């Protein structure tokens, strides 16, 4: 089976994406960035990205990660904060720890496109 199946399929992924962004909107380290963002749109695009990266039946159709995040001058601490929001969201959805880690591992390479400041 795919990581997509192990995560519990599309509905679970949509819940995770939605909750991750709600948490990021509350987190002191990241809330300013998301303050004026179209959360409904980001939730949809993040769902597609997570689905695709987990070998699910989706094609990400959003903006390239670097282009999108580069102007925000994002730090490693902020990147880690979003990853922690994602981990909390997966925990709340009762996704097994080992499955959580497989998804995180596939997102780790995005670090170099997203973080442009130390
Ligand atoms: C694993 C890390 C991350 C992933 C996978 C990710 C993914 C995404 C995706 C898929 C979108 C929507 C793209 C689109 O609308 O076409 C997005 C938008 C956005 N991301 Fe991230 N992101 C990450 C980290 C971060 C961090 C650390 C911040 C800032 C603290 C951040 C701030 C934003 C903001 C503000 C938007 C909305 C931009 C806009 O609509 O103009 N992201 N991200």
TrEMBL record:
Record key words, sorted: Heme, Iron, Metal-binding, Signal, Transport
Source organism per UniProt: Kordiimonas pumila
Record protein name field: Group 1 truncated hemoglobin
Keyword Transmembrane in annotation: no
UniProt KW Signal keyword: yes
